[in-house]
# Entry
Amino acid sequence: MQGWKSVLGALGGTVAVIAISIFGATSAMTKPYDPSLMASWVQATGSIAAIAGAYLLGLRQERAAYRLQEQAEVREAQRMRDTIRAVAKAGVDRAVAAERLLFTPDLDVNPTPFIFGGVSAIVERIEEARRAMTAIPLHQIGKAEIVLSVSDLTFALADFAETLRETEQEYKRAHAAYESFEAGTYPGRAKLDVNNVNGVYARLCENLVEE
# Structure
């Protein structure tokens, strides 16, 4: 379609040049046709048409470049949103899995990971997800709500990781002292931390959709 428009435009311009030249060569149809005037008019009219054509071509190319830039920006924004969503979901999934593994539904601890030292590895995986969140270039996001949600999620993951560290330290202390470990508030804190993580993630997803 664009090619046909160019062809038709060129034909229309040629016809216009000829018509104007004939008009000028006959002094607005008041004198006999003069070939010498026709040549001058064709040259002058052709030069003007060439200038106008070059201007219109440049304008069309500028508009096309602008459209391409807009499309590239849209694709980059979508890629950024997809990256944020994927990284955030990885952190949330790890936090949820850790809470289910380390604590029981009746707000107690599952001793096996604490006995065999698996808690540190779980915490490190959560920290990896948190570090991935902090590596997101927030200055490129361009929407305050998304920036705040990303920041809040990194803090929520950090709070949960800290709860796990404190639980592990207290478990080790009790084990070293040959004392029975009292879960106390740790399971409840962990559940609240994970609920906070899920809540912030839900808000982030809403902002990403609106964006």
User: Anything to note?
Assistant: The chain has a mean pLDDT of 79. Residues 29 and 124 are 91 Å apart (CA to CA).
